[in-house]
Amino acid sequence: MNTVNEPRKATTPAQTASPRGAWASHWAPELRILLVAVLLAAYFQFVNHDFLLSNASLVNLSQYVAPVAIIAFGEIMLMIGGDIDLSAGMVFAFAPFMMVFANDAGAPMWLAVIAGLIAAAIIGFVNGAVTVFLRLPSFVTTLGTLFLINGITLTVSRGTPAATPGSPAFAAVMGAWGYSEIIWTVAIAFVMHVLLRHTRWGLHTQAAGANALGASEAGIHVNRLRLGNFVIAAVLAGFTGILESFRITSIDPQAGGNQIMFLAVAAAVIGGTPLTGGSGTIVGGLLGAAVLGILSDGFTLIGINAFTFNIILGAAILAAMIFNIHVGRIRRKGAR
Amino acid sequence: MAQDRDDDAKDSSLISAGRRGIMQGAGLGAALSLLGGVTGGGGLISSAQAAEAAFPQHKKWKIVFVNHVTTNPFFVPTQYGIQDACAMFGMDYQWTGSATSDAGEMVRAVNSAIAAKADAIAVPIVDPNAFDKPIQAALDAGIPVFAYNADAPRGKSNPRLAYIGQDLYLSGYQMGERIASMIDSGMVALFIATPGQLNIQPRLDGASDAIKKSGKKIDIQTVATGATVNEELSKIKSFYLGHQDLKGMFAVDAGSTQGVAQVMKESNLPSKGVHGGGFDLLPQTIQLIHEGFLDFTIDQQPYVQGFYTVMEAFVFLASGGLVGPANINTGLKFVTKDTVEPYLNTSTRYEGKTTKPQIVPMKGAIKS
Amino acid sequence: MAEPLTAPAASADLALRGDNLVKRFGAVTALDGVSLSLGKGEILGILGDNGAGKSTLVKILTGFHQQTSGTLSVHGEETLLKSVDHARALGIECVYQDLALANSLSIYHNMFLNREIVRGGPARLLRLVDHKQMRERAAQCLEDIGVHVPSVDLPVERLSGGQRQAIAVARAVHSNARILLLDEPLAAMGAREAALIIDLVMRLKEKGGLSIIMIMHNYAQTLDIADRIMLMQRGRVTYEQRSANTSVAELMDIVRREYRAMRATTAG
Q1: Which domains does chain A have, with CATH numbers?
Q2: What is the pLDDT of residues C157-212, one digit of tens each?
Q3: Among chain A residues, CA nearest to B102
Q4: Is residue C93 in some structural domain?
Q5: How far is CA A153 from CA A158, A160, A254, C227, in A?
Q6: How many CB atoms lie within 10 A of CB C149?
Q7: Is the pTM value of this prediction over 0.80?
Q8: Which residue, A262, B264, B278, C26, could crosslink B269 as a Cys pair with Cβ 3.0–4.6 Å?
Q9: What does the DSSP assignment read for A256-273?
Q10: Interface ipTM > 0.85
Q11: Residue-wise pLDDT tens digits, B302-342
Q12: Which residues from chain B sit within 8 angstroms of residue A244, using beta carbons?
C-alpha cells in the first residue's frame, strides 16, 4: 500500500462504491462465527436427530441462547471501551426482586417491570461513576458491586425464592411463551446493532475504545460514553433476569450468578469482540451466544453427564475461540 | 439352590437397606412380587437373566436424572443406585442439571430431556413454582416424571407422578423433638445450605415447629451456609466463634451436618455441654459420631432414592403406564453412637464409599 | 548570537501573530517571551530540541493552554483562546503526533469523527448517521488534496504510516481549517513516506487558503518545505529567517554556540 503520489498530477479518486467482495470482507468476522455455529448445529443434528427439527427442540435451544445473548450485548458495549461488568449476573437476580416489590406495593405489572429496570440502571450508574470518576479499573469496581448486589439480593429476599407475579398474558409476552425470549433477543440485537454502527453514540464508543486520547482530542466526551454504557449493560442484565423469571415462573436469589456472566463475556469474545477493547460486534455476540447455546444444548441432548459436561464445554469454547481469533489475526496480517 | 440363596441375600439386602423404611403403595408391592416370583424359577439362569425373561425384549429405556447439586457427594450413592438399577432393568441414564441449585438451569435440562425424547425424567422439586410447567409439558409429551429427594410443598398441585424420598417435614419434626429432649433452654443454631429450597426447608420448618411445640425456652437462630461443602464449614465455624454461648448446633443437609461435626470436634464442644446433629451419612459425619462428637444423624438412604426411582420408571414403562407410580418414603433413621458401628466398618457401594459391586452379608440380630 | 528578526508584515496580513508569549507552570518557565508571526498562505517551520518549548507553544496556539502573559492575534484580531473548541471555531486545527485516529474505524469514520453527518427526514429523531454522504464527501476531500487510498471503507489500521498521516491531515483540512499546525509530521517516517507527506503539504499550500506551521527536527527537510524557519532553544526564539537566506550549516552553528554557552554556565 506504499503508493507515492506524483506531485501535481491528477490522481484516481478514492472508491466509494462497495462491491460484493467488500461486503463479505466487512462482515468477515461474523461470517466466520456463523460458519462455526452452522457446523456445530449440523454435527449435533447428525448425531441426535431431535436437535433442530422439532418445535420443542427449537424452543429449547432458543432458551439456551437468549439470556446469554442479551447480557452479551451489554458487555460488548463495555468491552469495546476496555471496560467490563462482572456484576451482570447479580443484577440479573436483583432486578426481578425489585419488580416484585414494586408490584406488591401496588404498581401495575408494566410499571413494576420498569421499576426493576430503573433499579438495574442505578447499579449501572454506580458502576460507571466509580470506574470513571474515581478512576478504578472496571474489573475492580464491578467485582465489588458483584458481591454487594448479591448480598443485597439475598437480604431483601431473605434468601427465599418468590413467585413471579402477573397475568398469564403478560407473562407470555415477557418470556413465558416458548419463542418470546428469542424474539426479544433478536429485537434487542437489532436495536443494539443500529446503536453501535449507525448512531453517533456507537461510533464514538468505538472511537473512544480504539483511541481514548485521540477521541477526547476530537472533542468526544469519553467519560459520558463509558458511564452511559455501564447503565446500558446493567439494564440489559436486569431485563434478562426479568425475562427468565417469567420463563421459570419463579424469582430465585441464587439465579444467574457468575456462570451466566462468564458465558456472556465468552459469547462476546467468541463472536469477535476482543477483551482488550477497540472494536466490537453485536451480531457476532449473538452468534457467539448461539455457539454456546448449541454446545450446551447439544451435549445435554446426546446425554453427556454432568461431570464430564464442563470438560467438553470448556474444550469446545477454547477451540471455537482459537479458531476465530487466529483466523482474524492471519487476515489482519495478510492485508498489510 | 445356589441362586435362591443369592437371590434371598439380594432381597434381604434390599430389605435391610430399608430397615425401618416403610414401603408403601400397591404398585411397589406389585414390582417386588414380580421380582420375587421370577427368582422362584429353577435352573442355572442367574436372577438378572431370569428377570429379563419375564419381560420381553424392550428398547433400552433412557431415564434422565436432573439434579440441583450435581457435584454434591451426597448423591454419589444415589448415582450408584441408579447405575445398579439400570444394569438390572436394561435401562440407560443421564445425570445432569445444575451444580449451584440454579432452577433456571434445571428447567432447561428438563426441557432438553423432553426434546431428546427421554423415556422418563426424574427431578427433585427444589423450587415451589418453576417445575410445574416443565413437568406438565413432559407428561403431555408422554414422558413420565418422578420427583426424588425433594417434593412439591403440601397444598401445591404439581403434576409429578410420584415422590421417592424422605418425608421431609416429618424428619425435621422428629429432629426437633429430639433437640427439645436434649436441650432445655438457650440458643440453638439451625444451619441450612440454601433456604427456601424444597428438599431441606421443610426439615427446618418441621424442626422449628417441634421445638416451639415443646414449650421450652429455646431461641432458634437460622443460618444459611451455602451450596458447597467448603463454604458451609467456614460459615459454621464463624458462627460458632461469634456465638460461643450456644447450646446446640443442628443442620438439615449433608454438607452442613459434616461442618457442624467438624466444628464440634475442633472446639471440643461436647465437653462444654453443647449438642449437635443433622442429616445424612457423609464419611466425616459418621466418623465423628463414632468418636462421640456428634449426637446423631438421620439417614435418608440416598442409594434407594436412585434405585427405586429407576425401578418405578421401569414398571411404568413396561406396563405402558398401567402400573407403577407410588410414593415411596425412603426412610428416616436416627443413627447414634450406639448404632453407627455397621456404617463404619462397611465400605459399601450402598453408602457411596466404593465403586465395587458387592453383596453385604447380614450379621446378628437386626437393631432398629 | 541571535540575528535580528525579519520585519513582520502588517498585522492585518498575518494569519497568526504572537507577541512576547510567556508560559509558566509553577516554578518552571516553558516559554520565556516568544514572538512569532505566520503570514497568510505561508509555511513556517519551527525547529528545536526537546525541552525547547515547541509543544507548549503549540498547545497555546491551539487553545489547549492559556499563556501566562503576552498576546495572540488570529486573522488580525487580538484574541485569548479559551479552549480547543474556541480555537477550532476560528479555524485553527492541529494534527498531533499520535494522529488521534481510531484504528478499528474506517477512513471516512475517522475523517468525520465527532462531526458525523446525521440523516435527515424521519430518521433525524433517532439521530442515525448518514454513511453514504460521509463516504462520498470523504472520498471527494481526499481526491481534492490528492491523497490516494483504495477505498474509504478501509479501517485506518490497514494503512501505512504515511497514509495515516495523510488521513489525519485531510481530516484537519476538511474541517475548514485556515491555520494548520502539524506536530512532528515526519517523525519515524522513511524517505518514501516522508515524500508523500511533503508533497501533500505543498499541494495544500498551492490550493491556497491555508497557513501552516510545522514543528520539525530535521533541518534539511524543514528548509526544503518551509518558507521561513524559527529556531527555539530553552523557551526562547534564538533565530528566525527565510529558508532561502540560511542553510543547515548556519543553523547547526547557532545551535552549537548556544550549547557551548550553556555548558560553560553549568560547568562554572
Answers
A1: 31-327 (1.10.3470)
A2: 888 888 888 999 998 888 888 999 999 888 878 888 888 888 889 888 888 889 99
A3: A255
A4: yes
A5: 8, 10, 9, 70
A6: 22
A7: no
A8: B264
A9: SHHHHHHHHHHHHHHTT-
A10: no
A11: 899 999 999 999 999 999 888 878 999 887 888 998 888 88
A12: 104
